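Example record

One chain of 220 residues, shown exactly as stored in the release files.
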Amino acid sequence: MKKVNLNVNNEKREYEVGKIVCVGRNYVAHAEELGNEVPAFPLIFLKPPSNLIFNGDVIVHPDYSNEMHHEVELVLLIGKTVKNADDETAKNAIAGYAVGLDMTLRDLQSELKKKGHPWTLAKCFDGAAAVSDFANAGDIDFKGAEKITLKVNNEIRQDSTLDKMIFSPVEIVKYISSKMTLEEGDLIYTGTPKGVNKVERGDKLFAYIENIGKLEVEIK
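Predicted structure tokens for this chain:
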């Protein structure tokens, strides 16, 4: 059982994490760097809560992959159950924002895609979803254009702004809730900008989103 916390009116509120819903190819430049088409609607996949780790934790590099990639992302915390949300309902359902890492075994993903198989195992492993502390949506002035960056060993790898997303957080919540019920404690990873690349054992990753938070993990 994994839990995340949110500071609401100077009191800590605890959420048990349900499903982790991830959006793929939500930045045009990232879709292009991987040779993929720009999607007409959000591409969705899931991670189990057991994949989740937190600031300061370690990601153990699976020995069945030689190419783990970093993907820095804005993460949404769903604070209330929603189904078929409109714009206002979708916005109000977002209780918090965080910075996260969607780690991907790119070699395994490519192999599975070539065979026409689901690529779940390339996205789902212990440590595949890292997340920072959550900022209360009611306490920040979220612009949707905040700077998002990732450094590996002090080298900038990813550097963009959230307004480069194809689908905004509200649009993502609306779309997902039209296909499945979103429940309190669900997390949504909203996609990564260009610059994804391989990490090695011993690398230290520093992810940051302006006005929202920071996240540090190490590859072992």
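Notes: The helical segments are 28-33, 87-93, 106-114, 120-123, 169-179.
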